[in-house]
Structures are given as structure tokens and as C-alpha cells.
Amino acid sequence: MKVRTTTVAVTAVLALSLAACGSKGSRSTSGADQDQLTIGVSMSLTGSLAREGLLTRSGYEFCQQVINGKGGIPVGDRKVKLNLVFQDDTSSPDTAAQLIDQYNDKGYKLVLSPYGSAATEAAAAVVERNGQVMVDSLGADDTIFEKGYRRTFGVLSPGSEYAASIVEALHDLAKPTPKTVIFLSADDGFSKSVTTGGEKAARGLGMTVLPTQFFPNGASDVSAALSKAKALHPDVIIGSVHFVEGVAIIKQSKELGVRPQGFGETVAPPTPDFPQTLNELAEGVLGSSQWVSSGKGSDKWFGTSADYATAYKAKFGEDAQYHAASASAACLALVMAVEKAHSLQPDAVRDALASLDTPSFFGPIKFDPTGKNVTKQMSVIQIQHGEAVPVWPADVAQKPLIWPGAA
Amino acid sequence: MNAFLQSTVYGLLQGGLLALVAVGFSLVWGVMNVINLAHGAFVVVGAYVAWQLNEWLGLDPFIAMFGSMAFLFVTGYLVQRLLVNLVVNAPVFITLLLTFGLDLLLTNGLIMIYSGNYRAINTSYALKSLALGGVRVPVGRLLGCLLAVACSLLLVSLMKRTRTGLAIAATGMDRGAARLMGIRARHIYALTFGIAAALAGLAGAMLATVGTFSPADASKYTLFSFVIAVLGGLGNMYGALAGGLLLGLVESWAGQYLSGTLVNAVAFGLLVLVLVARPAGLLGRPFYESRLEV
Amino acid sequence: MAAESRVDVTGKPAAAPPTPADEPDGWRRLRPATPWAIGAIAVLAVIALQTQLYSGQVRTVSTVLMFIALAQSWNILGGFTGYASFGQVAFFGLGGYSTAVLMAKAGLSYWMALPLSAVIAAAFAAVIGLPLLRLRGHYFAIATLGVAEGLREIVINVPRLTGGGAGISIPVVGKHASTAYLGNDTFYIVFLVVAAATTVLVGVLSRSRLGYGLRAIRQDEAAAAAAGIDTTRAKVTALVLSAFCTGLVGSVYAFQQVTIYPERLFDVQITLLMVMMVVIGGSGTVLGPIIGATALQALSEYLRANFTEVHTFILGAIIIAAVIILPQGAVFFIRDAWRTRRLPLLDNVRTYRL
């Protein structure tokens, strides 16, 4: 009897004391202080996307440093400093969504996207419900922009452009012009968007598209797809892949003696790890890049693409590639929108983003009604002497395409 | 026909590498009844050690692998002696959770040190291949596969012919009796764990030579080890080899003749079928199946 | 050598570690109705808590409630019988995908899809239960793991139905939406109801004939069979119940997430978390999974918020320490401390070390 009474009493007291602390609602001040703008970022710092997540974070951090180094964002008559808050979503989309919700509690109405399409898509749904605003740096899957969301804006070219740009570059530059192409694709949403876009472009340019071979996302053994491709003797092999599958295609092609005129791969070749892991095997591989250091356009914060590349290397000691640049550009778009809106209020910033039309070190930034940055063109790079060299389109090309590309 | 031969050869070579990954896992499970969820992390640590030696001293991976093995042997010995031995008599979940914690510790330690970059060890020969008729045999994978076979043979002769090996086997069967015979079980367990970790290190060095690695790969290798150990069965040193080769073959054939995305589905389907039809695995001994473990 | 005499062939102490049959003493001295009263107050307290939380905190606590429900589900089979299902996430994923497909493709309302999804998960468990539950120990664990991984691959390979690797979205706005999105507050209540229901189920089970049968199986399956327990039937029933609850949770989770992906819905980490929560809390008990899930989830949230770079590293270290200090689970640890009036911090090491 005694036990019962005490237990019940303790529990009741506990319940009441819980009920007594704090009050429900949504704080709206701390994210937008007088002289500081806090932006929440959920990022994959551990887990399967840690590498890409850390690169993306560098881009965001670099942006913060540059903006604050120039005194902050002019909003009306005052200057507002950027304060980026990072939390680790352990590469899982549900945690990313949860973190965005937590940022909303703290009044962080402006957010920058996590790495990758899955996490960005999860975050976009939350952003929409909470009336937050998100600029997407590296979630490229087209489906993010097909949901009717009005508060997510992507500075990067969408997934359907990745392989398509390689196909167009080959059509424009390669002599002899390749006639048959085969796509080797991972089976996640982003890679499939890439493949569909690439197939469409190739057919449009009169190439023969051989049956696409799929393998599991993240596969380190793609030998079966390669031996099937080998039997079809394609002129070009294009991988709609991430890093691991991209390296596997090149390494295992060498092992299995698959020798097309050349290889193209979407996201792997522009990363510094690609030539480092593959050495001479990487030579001649084409890749599509959201950004190259010879790009045209400039803005008042970062200057030109070349300025960006120089300053980035000075800070981090490694060459900037498109993950970081894309992240910086997303942050830049948000900064420009805040400046244009003369306000830190999310609705005003959203409207300013929707009507943004500006050149930048990243290329033009102008969003269509779905939130995609449509005016920007992807660049195509080729690995030449261990460096990713822009070869297409003509206005950013630094060296001619070497073709046939395969060593 | 050529395609069939090619996919068979490639599958066997891939399977050999996988067997090398799993053999240590299977050994620890069989002898100590410990499921080491940190095994994949050991493999990745091995890859990093070999890579680091290759960077610093320019060592060939087939020499650097001895460095990996030595480093991991010491690590494994100490982990067992200082940590796992503390709870080795507890229900099996406990060691499982302990090694899960260890896995988090190692994987994220590697991210903190090496920042999650993808890496590989480059050699002039590993990706070359011998052409036998129309079939190509990649050199690096061939060497890795031969190493796996050699390790299995060596392990068997160690277990059968040396006092230490017999002590390990005896401790695995009945620890109480083994201790009464004067076997220092604490040391023997640590030794077993060390050997298993060293084998993981060896596998890591090989994988770094033929493919890429990053800390995120650890869980993948643990899962492979799990599947292979069960396919092959416990209590038989050839079990891991058989399981690995079988898995490699099946995955390769599935990729060749079904859709490439069905590879894993077929592998796991096979696993469940083998378990249902022959619970002790292909070469396992019934003793290990009936052993009460939870 | 005294310790050695207690060790049998398998290296397991013959004098078994604390078993679920000894529920903590506190419980037994209470009147039968008391745990229910405490439970009801706890539920009310959680509802009261909700009124005090910001919207995003509501979601964070919802996740805790979700893991309580998952841990309890795992407890039904793993905790009571010792059959460790390492593929429990299969039922979670199946429940989630059933809901998504039923809502997106068949246009069912959520309140129809929810029970149906749980039934589908339970039916699947019944089918795989008979062949798999013949396996013992690790072999059962690995076979269920195989089922979960295989199921994920199947989901990936029927993109027309499930969206494949690209994931599937439940329509929540516009005219295709069969049920409007519930919002963080409602999901909180739904998760709470599911968590409370699974806890009640475990509570009822622990005092039922079936529950005693399951514990007997854990002690010694052959002896249990000899004592007249239909072990196969008991085990399959437990698996089906456990799958039903897990499928229910998966269904709520899927609707909460809107877009779901096979990698996450069949993530082996989720199974590992369930196991860990039950073991750290105290397996085979009613309170244990609640304690384990709350503690672990709160800890990892706290670490993530405060140690952005190294939180997983610290979590790993804490898990190792926790496992060494309280391998029998928090509930039993507290009971022993209560009985002996001292904190037996290193006793376990003395018992379990080599």
C-alpha cells in the first residue's frame, strides 16, 4: 500500500513538473536577431555520405567566412552577420527532416539543404509545412521540384542534365562522332533521373542507345553490367553513378578489357578523389560538373569563378570542386535574397528568391516557378594529366577534348 | 559460353576476396561464440594501414599487408584481452552490443582522422589481366584469391598441427575442460581474436589494391562476413572459403543472367534457403548448430 | 576454480543470469492494478508534456515513442523467448511500404491502410515463422536478417509498385491525397497510442499462459516441450504478434515521412537499435524497453546536438561502458542495487569475465 501511494505520488509530481516548464509555440526571434542571421543546416557528417557531406559543409563555411569578412549582409541600414549552425543527420533522411523541424522551433526559418536528393526531399516536405525557406545545394533529383513545393529553390542544374550534357559535348566535339552509347546506372532515384535525361538527349542527337544496365546503388562490383556492355561493343559508356560505382566501372573495365572510345561518368570525375584513386586510369574520362573554375559570371561577394577557386584553395588547401562551389552558391543565393528583400522575414525572402535573376561566380541564378535554376548550364570536364579540365561548352573550355578518350 | 566462363572466373575471384574478409569473423564466432560486428571496421582499418605504409614508404601492398596484419593482430589481441574478455561469459547479445559500440568507435575514429575520403592503393600490375582464351583473369584479384586459399590452408594446418592451434580448437569446444588441462583461456581467446583481426587486416589491404575504400564501407563487410560464415558453416576452417566462393559465384551469375539489381536479392534468398534446408551451413558441424547461444 | 564449475560446455554460466521470470520485486508486491494506474498516469504525463513542447520537439519525442513501440515489439519475441530476430526491420519496412502502396496506388484512406499494413506484416511473419523458427540462436538471427535484406531487394526490384530505389511518396496534398497529412501533433498522439498499446500487450503477455510458455522456451526449449508447451505454436504466435506491432509502427512512420526509401525502411541499424534498447533496458521485462529506448534515444539526441563532430564516437564509447557495467539490463541492475542496498558496479564484470 505504501509503495503504491509513493509511486503514484512521484509520478503525478513528475507529470505536473513537466507540464510546468516552458510553453508551447514557435519562437521567432533568435534566428533573426538584429545583427545576426542564424541559418540551420542538417548535414551528413557521419554515415554513408560523410565524404560528400564534409565537402558540402566546407562550401557553406567558406560562404559564411566570405560574407562576414566583408562585414555581413546589408539589410536596410544595418549589416547582418551570417551564423551557420550545423548538425549531423548521420546520412539518414528522417533525421534530416527532424533537424529541420528543430531549427523551426528555434526560429531558424531560413535553412540550407542537406547533402543528397533523399535527405533534401525529406527536408523540403518539412520546410513547406513549417513555412521555412530552403536553398538546395546538392539535391539534384528532378522529383524534388515536381511536388509543387514553393519554398525550396535549387541553385544547381537538375539531375536530368548531368548525363545529357556529356552526350551533347560528345556530339559537338568528338571526332569521330560516337554512334552508339550505353548507360550503366545505379538504381536510386537521382541516378535514374540522370539516365532518363541522358537517354533522351542521346536519341535526340541521333545516337543509338543500347539497353541500359542497372546495378545496386553503392555497388563496388559492376562486372556483370560491364561484360554485358562489352558484348554490345558501344562507342561510349556513360555511368550514371556515385563515386564508388564510378571508380568500379573504370577499374573493372580495365580488368575485363572493356574498351570503348571513351567513358563518361556523372558525379565521380570532378571530385579530387577520382584521379587520386585511379591514377593514369582516370585519364580521358569525361565528367559533368555543376561548376568549373573557368566559368563566366561574377558577383560582388565571391568575384569570378577563378577568384572563388583561388580563395577556396587558400583557406582549405585543396582545389575547390563543384560540391563546395554549389554549396557556396546556395548560401550566396540566400544572402542575395535577404539583401534584396531588405528583410529577414521568411515570406519576404522567399519572394525575393523567386524573383532573383543575377549573375554569380556559379553562373546565372534564376529560378523557374518550380524552384529549379534553369538558366545555368552544366559543364563537362575531362581528366587530363590528373586534372579535371573543362572542355565544354565552348565559352568555359580550357583545352580541346582528347578523343578517343580511353587510354 | 565465353560470357559464362568469364562470369564464373570473375565470380570465383571475387568470392575468394570475400572469403578472405569472412574467415576471421567465422573463426571468432566458431571458437568464442562472439559475433564481432566490428569485423568490417577491422577490414577498413587494415586498408588504411596498408595505404598509409604505401604513402609513407612506397611499400607494395603485398608487403604493406604484413604491416596491416601486425597492427591489427596487436589491436585485436588487446581488444579481446581488455574489453571482450570482461563480458565473454555474458549472454551473446552482450558481446554483440560491445562490438557494435566498438564498430561505431572505429568507423568514426577513421572519419575523424581521414575525413571520409575515398582512397585506393595503386599498383602497376593489380588491374592488368591475363587473357586465357577469351577469358580475362585480373592479376590483383587472382593474387587476393590465392592468398585466401593459402590462408585457409595455413589456418587449418595451424589448428591441426600446432599446440596453440589445438588449444584454440579445444577451448572452442569446451572451455571448462580446456582450462582444466592447463590452457590459459584468456590468452588463447585474445590470440584467436588477434589472428582474426590480422586476417581482416590482410583482406583490407587486398581490397584497397583492387577497389576503393572509405570508413563507410565497414558495415558492408560485416554483413558479407555474416552471410558467408553462415553459408559455409562454423567449426570448419574451409567453411568461410566455401561460403565466399559460393556467394561470389551466385552473385556473378545472377548479374549475368538476371537483372543486375537482383544480385543481392538472389544472394540473400540463397542464404535463407541454405539455412532452412541445412541449418549448420554447407560444411558446418552440427555441434555448432545445437549450441545454445542466447 | 569455483567459478568454473558453473560453466557448462557452451561457456554460459549454468546458474543462469537474471531471467525474465524474476520480474523486479517491486512489481510483485504491488496490487495487480497498480502497474496499470502508473501506466495510465505515464500516458497522461506524456500528453501533458506535449502541450509544453515546440513543434519540432514534438517530433523528437515522437521518435522516442516510436522506438519504445519498436523495442517492445522486439521484446515480444526476442526478450521473452531469446529468439533474436535480426530482421525485425523487415516487418517495419513491410508495414511502411504496404501503407505507402495502399495509399498511393489504391487510394485507400490512412485509417484503412494502417490496420491492413499491420495485418500484412503479421501474415508475412506467419508464413516465414514455421521454417525459420526451427533454427536456433545465431542461425535464426542470420536467417531473419537474410529475409529483411532480401525483402528490401525485392522492394527495389518492383519499381512499378514501390517506386524502387527512387522511393515512393504518399500523396498528402491535392486531390490525390486520400488522407490529409496529420501534422506533428497528431503523429505524436498516434505514436503514443501505438507505444502504449504495445506496452500493454507486453504487460498482458508477461502474466499470461503464453508468456510463461515463452519464458520456459528461453530457459530450455526441450524441457518446455516436455512440460506440454506447444513450443512451435507459442513461438510462431509471438513472432506474429511482434510483426503486427512492428508493422503498425512502420505504417505510422511511413505516413509521417511522406517519402520513403528502401534503404531506410529496411535499414539494419533500426533492428540493431531495437535489440540494443531492449538489452540495455532489461530484456523480457515490461519496463526495460521503455527505459532502454528513452535513454538511448535521449542520449543520442543530446550528443548530436552538443558534439556535432564526435557524437557517434562518444556514443560508441558509452555503449561499450554500459554493456560492461550493466550487461543484464537497467531494470535488473536497479533491482539488484535495491535489494543489496549498494551499487554493484563491478559485480557483473566479476560474473562474466574470463
TrEMBL record, chain A:
SUPFAM superfamilies: Periplasmic binding protein-like I (SSF53822). The keyword Transmembrane helix does not apply. Residues 1-22 form the signal peptide. Coiled coil: none annotated. InterPro entries: BCAA_transport, Leu-bd, Peripla_BP_I. Residues 37-385 form the Leucine-binding protein domain. Pfam families: Peripla_BP_6. Keywords: Signal. Belongs to the leucine-binding protein family. This is Amino acid ABC transporter substrate-binding protein. It comes from Rugosimonospora acidiphila.
TrEMBL record, chain B:
InterPro entries: ABC_transp_permease, BCAA_transport_permease. The keyword Transport applies. It is found in: Cell membrane. It comes from the Bacteria. The chain crosses the membrane at residues 12-29, 34-51, 63-80, 92-115, 135-156, 188-211, 223-250, 257-277. Its main location: membrane. The keyword Glycoprotein does not apply. Keywords: Amino-acid transport, Cell membrane, Membrane, Transmembrane, Transmembrane helix, Transport. It is a multi-pass membrane protein. PANTHER family: AMINO ACID ABC TRANSPORTER PERMEASE PROTEIN, BRANCHED-CHAIN AMINO ACID TRANSPORT SYSTEM PERMEASE PROTEIN LIVH. Belongs to the binding-protein-dependent transport system permease family. LivHM subfamily. This is Branched-chain amino acid ABC transporter permease. It comes from Rugosimonospora acidiphila.
UniProtKB/TrEMBL annotation, chain C:
The chain crosses the membrane at residues 33-51, 83-103, 110-133, 186-205, 270-293, 313-334. It is a multi-pass membrane protein. It is found in: Cell membrane. Residues 1-27 are annotated as: Disordered. InterPro entries: ABC_transp_permease, LivM-like. Keywords: Cell membrane, Membrane, Transmembrane, Transmembrane helix. The keyword Membrane applies. This is Branched-chain amino acid ABC transporter permease. It comes from Rugosimonospora acidiphila.
